[in-house]
Amino acid sequence: MNKTCLECGEKIVGREDKKFCSDGCRNAYNNKINKDSTNFMRNINNKLRKNYRILSELNVEGKSKTTRAKLLSKGFDFEFFTNILQTKTGNTYYFLYDQGYLLLDNDFYMLVKKDI
Question: What radius of gyration, in Å, describes the C-alpha atoms of the chain?
Answer without folding.
Answer: 21
